[in-house]
Amino acid sequence: MSTTFASRTxxxxxxxxxxxxxxxxxxxxxxxxxxxxxxxxxxQLCDFTDHxxxxxxxxxYDLRVALDGPLHADPSLxxxxxxxxxxxxxxxAVLRRAESVNYTPLVRGREE
Length: 112
Hints:
mainly alpha
């Protein structure tokens, strides 16, 4: 009876280990596929004009930096971070410029 119990325990442990390994391999394969697709899509941005890239907060240099990274790195994550940084820098520059301008009312009337 104990041999049957032991063999069932070993079989269950084998199935659990095998399932874990298969799941890990599937997740890694999906991750690599996602990185490959994102790299391909990032390369498509090279076809954009400078004006179109500026609209999404990127430059050609930003594309080069993201695509020159290691092959296992997802360039879309880097591009998103760069675009957020560029957007924050642009927002602060616009705010500084707006604060420095003396606005006069377009309609002149009674001064209150």
